[in-house]
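From the shared-data thread, chain only:
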Amino acid sequence: MEDSPSIETVYEAIYALYNQNTNPAEKQRASNWLNEMQKSVYAWKIADELLARKVDLNSYYLAAQTMRSKLQNSFHELPQDSHASLRDALLNHLSKLDDTTDGVIATQLCVALAHLALQMGSWKNAAVDIASRYNLLKTCFILELLTVLPEEVNSRTLRLGANRRSEIYAEFSDNLPAVNQLLELCLTSEANNNRIKIRSYKCFASWLNIRSVA
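Structure, as tokens:
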């Protein structure tokens, strides 16, 4: 894909892929085209715009999935001076999620931000930063972010070197008190919310590996 496609062209391909009335050959062409788009360097901007527009569920899901995939496989495409703006954009997208948001989309965005945090060496104490956003992000999404952070450190699909992993474990060890404090706050303030309680315990279990390493 030599040139960046217009956002309208992207929507047309998404519609063709998911529309039940589209013939099989056209669906396959749309699928192939979208796959190539997701692999291109233009996918970063396109995914961000689709996330901002939130036109429909299909485009919203594709955008979240694309962002997660790009951060997992193509982080090297980004110049270092763009990392902070991408982080801020993802946090902004996450701040707009609510209880009506499809769970798969929320998970994709949380994993995407976790992958960014793990690869972005300049984002120091990401876990503490995320925990400090208690009043800006919904509690359930903060807990999901903090849950996937330690889970993804040893992901086979994420290209982290041994030195970076060691650096992350040392930082996470320092971040444990802040994470524990947040979990205690969640369990106290949301004592009657079983969903939050379950997520809090799941987050605690995810950080047990950090405790054992520490």
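DSSP finds ten helices and no strands in the chain.
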